[in-house]
Amino acid sequence: MSYIDGFVIAVSNANRERFIGHARTFDPIFMEFGATRVVECWGDDVPEGKLTDFRRAVQAEKDESVVFSWIEWPDKATRDAGMEKFMKDPRLDAAGDVPFDGKRMIFGGFAPVVSLSAY
Fold first, then answer.
1. What is the pTM of this model?
2. Domain holding 41: CATH number?
3. Contact, 73 vs 4, CB < 8 A?
């Protein structure tokens, strides 16, 4: 079964297009290194919770939106090899300042236990 890397970040609304450009530049590298799909989602309906929520999790400020992203890999071995290549890739040097605060990023790797698809 596949393997998923998940990410949640806060991005300034003023940096929306800059973030999209960043993703369009660097997400294809994940594909090059074995990912089968990369999805970047700009928060549209991210409610405040009573105890916790996405906004609190990344300490999003009023002028920021929550971005929920994931990378799908065929398996964990491909992910481990692909992420190692990605982190060493010299193209990352061109990234400069990323359009979000990486210290507030939440991320992790996940092994699916249920997977349904209409296609």
1. 0.94
2. 3.30.70.100
3. yes
